[in-house]
């Protein structure tokens, strides 16, 4: 089983944004090509397939070279013939007759296992940003709002950033409101303040 | 590295509040980050497990994050440093 790295959520999200992590679509494409390469490299292969399994061993993404592979795969899943345990993916080759593959074939298959495992690890970590994609923009917006309110207090009261944040927290606790609400009030006070646009020394 | 007694109590009661409200460490961190928290997710998890000491402001921000996340549920609140008894003025004098 691929270890699920406890990546810092923000860096994972940024990794995805910057294209460092693969989307499921890209993995599906790569898996398709991998199946093709497997089939072409192993003599006597009727068809090849690569599947990525979820934690309940259900296929979530797969590539296959021929319709017959899909059919054979479906049969195997139905019959529960797939290897049990901690499998996260499967690579299969099919031949028309029994006993068509030799020991050397196994070694060759193992060579393909490494790039396949790399693909798997990428699609696994790519799930994380999807999970937080809704809450991240809200967290960034709120952080920005609170930081702006801190900046206003710092200038107004000549205090440090930490003291400004403590001041907002005290206000939130005293008024039983959230830090975000208190910060929004500070910002609103600036927008409608008496000094707007006049004698601010900037002209 | 020293932990003053109010820090362990604050941490213990934060954990109790999180458990009662079914808030995960990951959700807590993201909310805490959203209200201006400056410590990373790893450090927050380490703090929750009692492996790392955090400055008072960050501890209070974590408490506030937990309380805002669970404000519509009954159950214990996470306390702020100034709500805890004395015994904390001996600040850790490590680097």
How would you sum up this structure, described in words?
With 203 residues, chain A is mostly helical. Chain A is 59% helix and 9% strand. Chain A has a 3-stranded antiparallel beta sheet, sandwiched between helices. With 95 residues, chain B is mainly alpha-helical. At the A-B interface, helix 6 and helix 7 of A face helix 2, helix 3 and helix 4 of B.
Shape of chain B: globular
Q: What is the average per-residue confidence, as pLDDT of chain A, rounded to a whole number?
A: 74
Provide the spatial order of strands within the biggest beta sheet of chain A.
2-1-3
Quaternary form: heterodimer
Radius of gyration of chain B: 13 Å
N-to-C SSE series of chain A?
HHEEHEHHHHH
Main sheet specs of chain B: none
Distance between the terminal alpha carbons of chain B, to the nearest Å?
A: 8 Å
Measured between the Cα atoms of the first and last residue of chain A, the distance is: 65 Å
Kindly estimate the percentage of residues of chain A that lie in beta strands according to DSSP.
Answer: 5-15%
Secondary structure tally, helices of chain A: 8
Helicity of chain B, in percent?
40-55%
